[in-house]
Target: YceI family protein
Amino acid sequence: MKKNVLALTLAVVFGFTASAIEPKTEEKKEVKTDESSVAWKAYKVTGSHNGTVDLKSGALVFDEGKLIGGDFTVDMTSLISTDLEGEYKGKLEGHLKSDDFFGVEKHSTSTLVFTKVVPNGKNSYDVTGDLTIKGITKPVTFDVSIYGSKATATMKIDRAEYDVRYGSGSFFDNLGDKTIYDEFDLVVDLVF
Model:
């Protein structure tokens, strides 16, 4: 009888505990790559260049409407300059795709995977993620804002951390006005 009472007590306790655990309500929302954009801006002593790169795939993960994760893949072969035309545009794009910069023949994609998401306001989140460029993965932090079915993020990336050394004052001396700054900006607008 004592065994039956103990078994019944355990069944009731574990039964209630199991039923009290709610199933996850995670929802993965695929990004509409044709409606989303990734813009870049890089700086040098004598000015700057800007352009775009195409998002190949991406998704944001929500739990009860709150952002909890995300992962993205960028097509590095789509890297273009939008501030130049003609011969100079072609030269810059070719150089950026070469091994001097992003080596897109060997590294055709770059990825970002969210590793930590912390709410910091009504529609805003502090995000840490693993960014992989040229096969090198480093953590990055940035803010993400969500409004309805749109998200925006702006981040600064230090290219030197990804072995993108051309014209970098961090690696070469006496570059003068040929110096290209290590940090570049990414502005991401997502539709999901």
Q: What stands out?
A: The longest strand covers residues 47-63.
